[in-house]
Write a structure and sequence with these properties.
alpha/beta, Elongation Factor Tu (Ef-tu), domain 3, Rossmann fold, six-stranded antiparallel barrel, 22% helix, globular, oxidoreductase activity, Iron transporter
Length: 247
Amino acid sequence: MAKQVRKAKVLSTEQITPHLQRIVVGSDDFADITCAHIGNYVKVLIPQNGVADLNLKTACMRSYTIQHVNEQSGALTLDFVINMHQGPATHWAKIAQVGDELGIAGPGPKKLDNYQHSHYVLLGDLTSVNAIKGYVQTLPLFSKIDAFIHAPTKQDIIDLDTTRNINWIITNNADEAMLNAIKTIELTEQPPIVFMALEAGLVRKAKAVFSEHFNIPRCNIVSSGYWKKGVDSEGYKKERQQNAELA
């Protein structure tokens, strides 16, 4: 990911669903970010006590997927999950006001790099819904796409600006529902490429289903645990850092 930190301001903030806060940020430094970056991620340098920290070494940072790019103004739209997880980014998103300053680093690349495959399986929840939006808008029309997104309520369903079929799984028991949905997938001749960004424990369970039930090679699976049950965002970040150091 590009290390450039761009100083930005909040242009608007709106709670669009019970669990999503949509924040539009603008900067004179966004000129090189285009609609092609929808679905890419940026690092948001979260203000602390109302003060923006633009230093990559000291700032509290979280990754967020670009939901929309206004090519005329250069504004970026980002969706923050609220009322579900605890952490500095969630707290800031709920209290952010127009004019607040923050830092934006990136954008970084999309996780998938093969856009000529015959079959894709996309699994996500509200933390990764815009990553899936970016893929369904980018993947070729000849490809079969099985997309499943978990949301806690029907009111959390958002428009992904696509004609592709999106399967929304509305439940409080995401693990069971998502694993059952995976088992309904009908494979094509080639093993699918799988992208999933979910709760860390569910990612492990889903990997096992793809490997054992479908015999899909691990190299075809791109996965990330965006959050973890029972651990706040700061604790989960430290846990991942410790695991990376031990790897």
